[in-house]
Design goal:
Elements: H1 14-34, H2 67-77, H3 85-94, H4 98-122, H5 126-138, H6 147-150, E1 157-158, E2 163-164, H7 165-170, H8 180-190, H9 193-210, H10 225-239, H11 244-252, H12 255-262
Antiparallel strand pairs: 1-2
Helix pairs in contact: 1-3, 4-5, 4-9, 4-12, 5-11, 9-10, 10-11
Length: about 270
C-alpha cells in the first residue's frame, strides 16, 4: 500500500521517520549505481514521458493518460493524481530493501494456489493479481493488520490487496448502509488472506465490466498496446494514484515474480540401481 493510502498517521517520531527515509534513499541510490532497471519501464512514467518495455518504441506508453481520459476516470471512479515526488522516491527506495522484498515474496508464495485459482475463475491475468499484491504487501504500514487497528475505523483498507468495505458493497456482498455488526464481519473477511485475494480478482473482473472490456478475455500486456493500456487502467482504478500503473507493469515483468507464479517443483527421479 502506498504511504498516503491510509487514513491514519504513523506514531513514529520525527527522528525515526527521517532515518527510515534516509535508509530508503540510500538503498535507491545504491541500486541505481549497480543495477539497471528491469525491462526499460520508467518508474517516473506518471510524471514524465516514458517508454514502455511492453510495446515498441513507436507505440505510445500505456501508462500515459490524456487529459480527457483522466477527467473521465476522475469523474466516474474518483481517482487522483500521482504521489508527491518525495513519496515516489520513498516507494522506490523501499523496493530495494532486500529483506523486505524476500518477506513479501515469501508471503506471495503462500498465496500462490489461491492466486492461480481465483485468477482462472475470474479470467484475470495471474501476473496482474500478483503484481498488485506485491506492491500492496511491500508498501503496507507496520501494525495496520493488528485487530484493534483494523476495527478502530482509522484504517480504510485491509488485507494483502488493501481492499475496503466499499468494495464489498460494490460486489453486492454488503448492503449500501451496513450495520456495525456487518462492518465488523466484513473487516474480518478482508483480513483473511485467501478471501482477500478472491475479492481482488472479483474487483478486477468487475472493473473490466464497468470499462466495457470483455470479462472472459485475459489481458496480456505483451500481446498488444490495447491490452497493456487496459491493464494500466485497471491498476489505476484499483489504487487511485497515477504513478501506480507504471509500477504494476514493471512488477509484472519482474523475473522473481514470474518464477514464483509459473515455476513448478518436480520430484527428483531416483537412479535405478
Amino acid at each position: 500500500m502506498l504511504p498516503d493510502r491510509l487514513g491514519f498517521r504513523s506514531a513514529m517520531n520525527t527522528r525515526a521517520i527521517t532515518g527510515l527515509a534516509a535508509l530508503a534513499a540510500a538503498a535507491l541510490a545504491a541500486s541505481v549505481m549497480i543495477r539497471p532497471p528491469i525491462g526499460g519501464i520508467n518508474p517516473d512514467a506518471a510524471s514524465a514521458g516514458s517508454s514502455s518495455p511492453l510495446s515498441k518504441e513507436s507505440d505510445p506508453d500505456p501508462t500515459d493518460f490524456s487529459a480527457e481520459e483522466l477527467e473521465h476516470l476522475q469523474r466516474r471512479f474518483g481517482v487522483h493524481g500521482p504521489q508527491t515526488q518525495l513519496a515516489q522516491l520513498f516507494t522506490r527506495g523501499v523496493d530495494q530493501l532486500q529483506p523486505l522484498r524476500a518477506n513479501t515474496l515469501s508471503r506471495l508464495n503462500r498465496l500462490k494456489p489461491v492466486i492461480h485459482r481465483e485468477a482462472d475463475r475470474h479470467r484475470i491475468n495471474p501476473m496482474l493479481v500478483t503484481a498488485i499484491l506485491f506492491d500492496e504487501i511491500q508498501h503496507s504500514k507496520p501494525g495496520e493488520d493488528l485487530p484493534f487497528v483494523v476495527h478502530s475505523g482509522l484504517v480504510e483498507t485491509h488485507g494483502p490487496a488493501q481492499l475496503g468495505i466499499s468494495e464489498l458493497i460494490h460486489q453486492g456482498r454488503l448492503p449500501e448502509d451496513p450495520s456495525p455488526g456487518q462492518i465488523a464481519e466484513a473487516r474480518d473477511l478482508l483480513m483473511d488472506p485467501e478471501a482477500n485475494v478472491e475479492l481482488l480478482a472479483a474487483k478486477l473482473s468487475r472493473l473490466k465490466g464497468e470499462l466495457g472490456l470483455d470479462r472472459e478475455s485475459i489481458l496480456i500486456a505483451s500481446r498488444s498496446y490495447v491490452d497493456a493500456k487496459a491493464i494500466a487502467t485497471l491498476a489505476y482504478l484499483h489504487n487511485g494514484k497515477l504513478d501506480y500503473p507504471a509500477r504494476v507493469l514493471r512488477y509484472m515483468q519482474d523475473p522473481a515474480l514470474h518464477g514464483l507464479i509459473y515455476s513448478t517443483i518436480r520430484p527428483a527421479v531416483l537412479p535405478v540401481i
